[in-house]
Each structure stands twice: as C-alpha cells, then as structure tokens.
Design brief:
Strand content: 5-15%
Number of helices: 21
Largest sheet: 4 strands, antiparallel
Helix content: 40-55%
Number of domains: 3
Shape: globular
Oligomer: single chain
Structural class: alpha+beta
Strand order of the largest sheet: 14-13-15-16
Number of strands: 16
C-alpha cells in the first residue's frame, strides 16, 4: 500500500490545484475595499518609521481585534473562502453521478472524491481502487490540505497568500512603478497592469507566472538598461528600484514545475526526492546518491546571486554615508545573534539596553523588550550614546528605567571594552564605524571562504563520492560538502537574513532603502539553500538500514503516548497504538480513534471468552509502586490485566 500511496499523492495534488485555479479564475474583488486597504498599508509603512511616537495610530491599524488593516484583510480572505465554498457546490452538480458528500471545499477530503479521481484519471483506477474502504489512510494529508482553504491568516492558506503576502507586494509595486515611469516615459504603456482592478489577474499560478515574467521581468530589464546608460553620464540620476515578483500560489505548480511534469521530469528540486515531510538527495540508476551532482547544481544556481549581493554589500560599505539608515533594518533575532557573537560575555546585553536607553526598546512588566525590527539608525544612535556616556552602567542595570541622562557618574564605552578581542583589527575611531567594520568582516569572511571551499569541491568531484574515505575519523568527502553548504552558502544566507522583514509569513509594512534591499530580495527569491542543506544533512547522517532495528511511526510522532486504565479497570486507556496477541502471533494495532478500546464505547469487544486473542492493556505505574518498600508489588502490578480478551474487536478490525 505504501508504493500505491506514492502514486496517489500527485493525483490529489493535481486535484487541489485544479480546484484552486478554477475558483480563483472567477474572483472579482471590491476595488473600494482594495483601495481602503492600500491607503491603510501605505500609512502604516510611514508610521512604522517612528513606532515610538506613532504607537496609538499603529494600533488603530494593526490591533488583532479591531485594527482597520486586520478587519479589511479578514473581509477579503472570507470573500475568497466563499468562492471556494460555492465551487464545492458546483462540483457536486458537475459530478452529480458521484453524489459528493460534505459542503464547500470539504468535498475534496471526503472518501467519495475517489470516484472523481477515477473520472479524471482513468489510467490510475487500479491504484485508486486500492484505497476504497481505506480512505482514512489519507487523514493526515487531507487535514493538511484543508488548511489551503481557511479564512484565517495562516501561512499555508491560499487566502493568506493572496491578501496578506502578494497584495502588499502589489501595493509596493504600484508605488515603485510610478517612480520608475516618471523617469522612463516608454514604460507608461504598462500602467494598466498596476491598477487595483488588475489584481484579480494575479491570483492563479499561471497568471502569477505571466505577471512575473512578462510584466515585472520586462520592466526591470528595461529599467536596468536605462540605469546602466545613465551611469555613464557625468550627473548620476536617483536610484530606481526593482519591482518585486509575486510569490507562488499555495498548492500550485510553477511554470517550470508544470513543464517538468509534462516532460516526465522531477517536479521537486533537482537531484532531490521527497522522503516524509522533507527531502533526501536522489539516487541515480545505479542506486548511488547523487551528492556531487546536487552540490554542483546548487553551486550553479547560487553563483550569480552571490556575485550580486557581494557587489551590493561592497557598494554599501564603500559609500554607507549615502544610504538611508532609517530604512535598513535588523531583525530582533539578529540583534541577539550580534550581541552574543560580536560582544559576548558580560557585554551580551549592552546593545539591547542601549537601544532601550535611547528610546528604541520598550519596558513590559519590568523586562526590556527589543522591537521586532531595529533600524540601522537606531543602532547608530545607541552606539553614539554609549560612546558619549550614559548615566548608568548598561551591563549592570536591571529593571529600572532611568528617565534622565543627567548624572554625576557616566559610563562610556570604547571599542576595546565592548567588542570581543578577536575583532581588534577592525576597531575604528568610533563605535558605530567599528560596528560597520565588524559587520563587513563577517560578510567578507564568507565571500572569501566560499571560493576556497569550491576549489576543494572541484578537485574532489573528479572521483565518485565516497563517504567511507576518512581522515582523523571524519569522512573527507562529507566534510567538503559540509564546509561548502553549511559554512559557506548557509552561513552567508543567514547573514543576509539579518535584514529580512518577514514576520509570521508576512512582509512587515515599513519603508526600505531600495538600493540596499533590491539585490537581497533577488537573493532570497526562490533561494533553495536551506532546502538543499537539510537534504544533504538528512542523507549524509542517516544510519545504514538494519533489519534488527526498523523505525515504525506511521506518520505519528509518538505511537504509545496517552493514558492508562482508570482506577476501576474500565479500559479507558487512550493510546496511539497497542498490541494484540492471537495464536502466538503479535499484531501492532494503529489506533485512529483514541477511544477505540474503551469498554464504555465498545463493550462488545470484551464479551468473548476466547483466550486465544489477547489485548495488551496499558497501566501507568506510580513511583511508590516502583521504588522503596513497595518494590515487591511491581511484577504483580504489571501482570494485572496485562492481556484482555478482544477477539471480536480484532475480527472487526481485520
């Protein structure tokens, strides 16, 4: 059944893609609502420049209960769900001979959908028929797919992708297009594509592909050509931003994936195969993992992206005075990473407390809280305040907010008593420039290491990958992969993510310095570094197969989690599985309903006196049963009701 299950998944995936695409093809938004949301979104971006002084207005827009943006987004998501529900009813009429059960999109997760699959894919009927009567096999899969269609702001939902992610990108592109078309008059012919009425044509994956390739792609190409021509002029024009591509639709294949599917190619990332919820490196026709091939492909994909961001960072560090510091952001998590990596020890908390001291952080219930995003300008002010002197020792101050900076005792910091000693080579005339130099050194290290790792890889790949070739107890070839993928590509990717504005699956609404972020957005788009890193890791660390120890979990995190019989031995225990013994054979029983063996709910299962069939009952032993003077009771306690008669239940189950 496991092999046949693999045949079924692509059918279900295609079914959901059909449903999503058909539903979204007929969505027409109320442009009045879109216009209101656009105005609120742009207002929020401006307010977020100074969250401290604009907190009341920001709350009116973003409050989870009554925020205007939250309410408008919710209204639009519900509108999309209504379309899913109406299409579900249309499918019931379309496939009326099947007599689909349930309402709305839930027709897709009902057992009768197998009949629809038989109509759509007659060549797969032999696989489909196997699961008649066993549709619960797909319970986990179906529960996951139902998340596609919910109105909540769930990252895996289609409505969330349309309203909370791609619509803000569309809003930003409207503003950027106006800025670009003012400089390049020839681009005004594209104006109609950036009207709110046109957003309905950016919902299905096919239309997203077309918009990204033929509208966004062409405009960016023409803009880049214009910028290159302008760069030769003596008087340079203002920087023109890139338009941002929309993200792929949930549950749908991109143009490239559809092409691979038609040609018989792999719809998954190249040289990867799906294993459970993740990926492994795929094997070739000789049964060998394609480690070198996968690494070479990843390198080929990342090379131009890495070159672009290297140039981007070089421009910034060479000319940082001409960038908008209040539009370059650091994530809260990155501030914590920097604190430990660059300062460490007793200086670990200095930067966050300095941010609070200068008005960036906030106090909640006596503890300092760093905001989700901190601007480079905030960091500059914090560094300058530490250098000029503050009226308390930031390292020792606990929970009291000092409201005045006037004090007889002032504590000042210099690079040598703030940064770690291993950064001495980068100390500058002030703390902020030292921070920039240390930041640059971290990036430069990766940009220099990656070519060195590549030299070792190019030499190693001349011979087949051999995990057993070792030096000092470590696999030589595995270390080459680890260095390039983990220490090189992944660490660089993580350094760039310091500035990513994604929060809970959405891009936080705040102004950004385009000439800093454009290359980063391109680098992050469809970047598969994390996916390949996990695939290499899971493949190269897996233990050899052994018949003596086979892991069985049947897509359950814990097979035997639950609770035991009640004090009256009423067989109320609820577990993910148990064992049944019949004629000296043992059967592992996977329990779909937790109370399947409940005496109260299934009394007929315990009526037989047939001793040939026995159920293992679980008993949670108290510590007093196991330890101390009562230790002698242990074995009798375990033996008590260890097996119960349940022949009827076994017969029903099998």
């Amino acid at each position: 059944m496991g092999t046949r299950h693999k045949e079924m998944k692509p059918l279900f995936d295609d079914l959901h893609e059909r449903f999503i695409s058909e539903a979204l093809a007929d969505v027409n938004f109320d442009t009045t609502v879109l216009k209101k949301l656009e105005g609120c979104y742009l207002k929020l971006k401006m307010l977020n420049k100074d969250k401290k002084n604009n907190s009341a207005e920001i709350k009116l827009l973003t409050d989870k209960k009554d925020g205007e943006i939250i309410n408008l987004q919710g209204e639009l998501r519900k509108f999309i769900v209504q379309r899913f529900d109406s299409l579900g009813e249309e499918w019931k009429e379309k496939y009326k001979e099947v007599k689909l059960d349930d309402k709305g999109y839930k027709v897709l997760t009902n057992a009768k959908i197998l009949d629809v699959l038989s109509i759509l894919y007659p060549e797969k009927v032999e696989f489909i028929d196997v699961f008649r009567g066993f549709f619960t096999y797909f319970d986990g899969f179906n529960n996951n797919r139902e998340n596609y269609y919910i109105a909540e702001d769930n990252a895996t939902g289609v409505p969330n992708r349309i309203i909370n992610i791609n619509l803000p990108i569309f809003f930003d592109n409207i503003q950027k297009f106006e800025q670009i078309s003012e400089k390049i008059a020839a681009l005004k012919e594209y104006k109609k594509y950036f009207e709110l009425e046109n957003y309905k044509n950016c919902l299905t994956q096919e239309k997203i592909d077309n918009f990204n390739e033929n509208i966004i792609g062409k405009i960016n190409s023409k803009k880049n050509l214009f910028s290159q021509q302008q760069s030769h002029n003596e008087q340079k024009s203002a920087y023109l931003p890139n338009l941002i591509k929309l993200q792929k639709q949930v549950g749908c294949r991109t143009k490239q994936q559809r092409g691979n599917d038609i040609s018989g190619g792999n719809i998954y990332p190249k040289y990867l195969e799906k294993v459970g919820l993740g990926f492994h490196i795929a094997k070739n026709n000789k049964g060998q993992y394609q480690i070198w091939e996968a690494l070479e492909y990843l390198t080929h994909e990342l090379k131009p992206k890495i070159g672009a961001i290297k140039e981007n960072y070089q421009k910034f560090f060479h000319n940082w005075q001409n960038y908008k510091f209040d539009e370059i952001w650091f994530r809260k998590e990155s501030i914590n990473t920097i604190s430990g990596r660059w300062f460490g020890g007793e200086n670990w908390a200095v930067i966050t407390r300095a941010l609070n001291y200068t008005g960036t952080g906030k106090l909640e219930k006596g503890d300092y809280k760093t905001p989700s995003f901190v601007s480079l300008k905030d960091l500059q002010v914090a560094m300058e305040s530490l250098e000029s002197g503050v009226n308390f020792d930031v390292k020792k101050q606990k929970k009291t907010v000092i409201e005045t900076k006037i004090s007889e005792n002032k504590f000042s910091y210099k690079a040598e008593n703030l940064f770690k000693d291993n950064y001495k080579a980068y100390f500058k005339k002030n703390l902020f420039e030292t921070l920039l130099a240390v930041w640059q050194s971290e990036l430069d290290l990766k940009f220099s290491q990656i070519p060195e790792f590549l030299v070792r890889f190019e030499k190693a790949k001349e011979k087949p990958f051999d995990r057993n070739k070792k030096n000092s107890g470590k696999s030589v070839d595995t270390e080459i992969v680890k260095d390039l993928v983990e220490e090189g590509y992944l660490r660089l990717f993580q350094l760039t993510k310091y500035h990513n504005l994604e929060k809970k699956g959405e891009i936080d609404a705040r102004p950004t310095e385009d000439k800093f972020y454009d290359s980063l957005n391109e680098f992050w788009l469809d970047n598969q570094t994390v996916t390949y890193h996990k695939a290499f890791q899971s493949t190269l660390t897996q233990k050899p197969y052994s018949q003596d120890k086979i892991k069985l979990n049947f897509e359950r995190g814990n097979l035997f989690t639950g609770w035991s019989d009640d004090k009256n031995n009423n067989h109320t225990f609820q577990y993910g599985s148990t064992f049944i013994k019949k004629e000296n054979k043992y059967f592992l029983v996977i329990i779909l309903k937790n109370d399947a063996f409940s005496l109260k709910n299934n009394p007929e299962a315990y009526e037989t006196n047939d001793e040939k069939c026995q159920l293992m009952a679980s008993k949670l032993l108290k510590s007093t049963t196991i330890y101390g003077s009562k230790e002698s009771r242990l074995f009798s306690e375990i033996r008590r009701q260890l097996f119960q008669n349940c022949n009827q239940l076994l017969t029903k189950s099998m």
